[in-house]
Automatic annotation (TrEMBL):
Top-level taxon in the UniProt lineage: Bacteria
Annotated Gene3D superfamilies: 1.10.10.2830
Name by which UniProt lists this protein: Uncharacterized protein
Assigned keywords, A-Z: Plasmid
Length: 195
């Protein structure tokens, strides 16, 4: 079965109409060739594209179904998807959540397709607030360092309620771009954008 899919992918990529195929179909073709053992540069040579282009389409081919639906519906550009997926892989927020927010912002502006300006940048707290938050967490450093030095896989530390609030606020800033003290956008609203 795998050989048949690889052979079919080879036929598609060598077809004169390959570049006229929908973007996700081309991405899936690249993935089938990659899964069949070809290197990005070999796929690029067959498609007469750059290895970077192949890498980008492989990102699209492996995107979660909700992200693929946004691409198929042409609600986002593939460049925005690649950026969102790479950000998620670096520890940022979910690509689907970020893209759904962009689509929602575009709809609010009366457009059917999200644009880069619809991207919500991570809003960091001002310097004074950040220093205050980190100062609140400073007493946690010593017990955490001791447990790390002891090689403990799981740590047990006591934190105050105010330290817990600070940690949650910092995580909100990093993971969902929420300013300290502000309520996050509803995840139900984010999920609605994927439908």
């Amino acid at each position: 079965m795998a050989n048949k899919r690889f052979d079919q992918a080879m036929e598609r990529i060598q077809s004169p109409s390959f570049n006229d195929m929908p973007l996700l179909a081309r991405a899936d073709t690249f993935k089938e060739l990659k899964d069949g053992g070809l290197l990005n540069k070999e796929i690029a040579a067959l498609a007469k594209k750059t290895p970077q282009h192949v890498e980008q389409l492989l990102i699209l081919a492996t995107a979660e179904p909700g992200v693929r639906r946004l691409i198929a519906r042409e609600q986002v550009t593939y460049a925005m998807v690649i950026e969102a997926v790479r950000d998620e892989r670096r520890g940022g927020q979910s690509a689907l959540t970020a893209l759904n927010r962009m689509v929602a912002n575009a709809r609010e502006a009366g457009r059917s397709r999200a644009m880069r300006r619809d991207l919500e940048p991570v809003k960091l707290p001002n310097r004074r607030t950040l220093i205050s938050m980190l100062t609140e967490l400073t007493p946690l450093r010593a017990p955490i360092a001791e447990q790390l030095d002891a090689g403990q896989d799981e740590m047990s530390i006591s934190i105050s309620q105010s330290q817990g609030r600070v940690l949650v606020s910092l995580l909100d800033v990093v993971l969902i771009g929420k300013r300290p003290g502000k309520k996050a956008r509803s995840s139900a609203r984010d999920a609605k954008g994927a439908m």
